[in-house]
Amino acid sequence: MAYDLGKLGFLVVEDNVPMRHLVRQMLQAFGVKRIADASEGHGAFRVLESADFDIALVDYLMAPMDGVTFTRLLRTERTSPNPYLPVIMMTGYTERERVIEARDAGVTELISKPLSARGLYHHITAVIEYPRPYVRAPGFFGPDRRRRQMSFAGPERRRGTPIKGARYPGRPDYLDV
């Protein structure tokens, strides 16, 4: 299904200027008209304090505030401008530990670099088509990390069977750990 993304606002948080311009051009090709950017997490917070956005595209590795720290603070800081903002993290670091770190910080989706327009569009539509409820638990606030439904006998849920009827076409189930 094709979406009219023209009414959505995107915040691009990327320290690499050519990559930031590339992401901006992809979004414009998708019909997005309202795009703001920042070169790292502190600047992104200033942008978020002055305007509302629908989705943030955030790089993993930036200085002085990286994407994981930005996402964690966005989700948990008392003065956060929008703790419910969907965050799509862009990264060239897809090792399991880093993916888990991003997930545990409250990232909504994760896309690996190098980016393709098709892949970026796919992750944007995943945020739209498969919204996840937000969970508040000790040490975590963010989109529900579980993509599986399961029975369990204890106070915590971990691995299980797929959610009946859920569709994640063409995506690795990288958040199921």
UniProtKB/TrEMBL annotation:
Keywords of this entry: Phosphoprotein
A UniProt-annotated Pfam family: Response_reg
Classification via Gene3D superfamilies: 3.40.50.2300
Tagged with keyword Nucleotide-binding: no
GO biological process, one term: phosphorelay signal transduction system
Record SUPFAM superfamilies: CheY-like (SSF52172)
SMART domains the record matches: REC
Region feature Disordered, mapped onto this chain: 146-177
Highest taxon in the source lineage: Bacteria
Residues annotated with 4-aspartylphosphate modification: 59
Domain Response regulatory per the UniProt entry, residue ranges: 9-128
Protein name in UniProt: Response regulator
